[in-house]
Amino acid sequence: MDGNDAVSRFHEKPDAEMGWINGGFFVLEPGVIDYIEADETTWERQPLERLAADGQLVAFRHSGFWKAMDTLRDRRDLEDLWASGSAPWKRW
Length: 92
Known about the structure:
Layout: H1 46-53, H2 72-84
């Protein structure tokens, strides 16, 4: 990403690599459909790589707490944080 949050290059990193991650939500314009070739297209590969190369991808840098909830273990970890009273997202 450059100073204006434009993404100049996108690649899905291996699990062990550190750096910014792709997580959260996408806000898309209808023309993005042209970057998807088939049902089997992997979003994090061709479409995002091509959008970045074409100067059509920007990102919001979030430096606060974030954790995926993709597995039952992730869910349990987040529930444990909540139950302990130390959940970073709890505001009241």
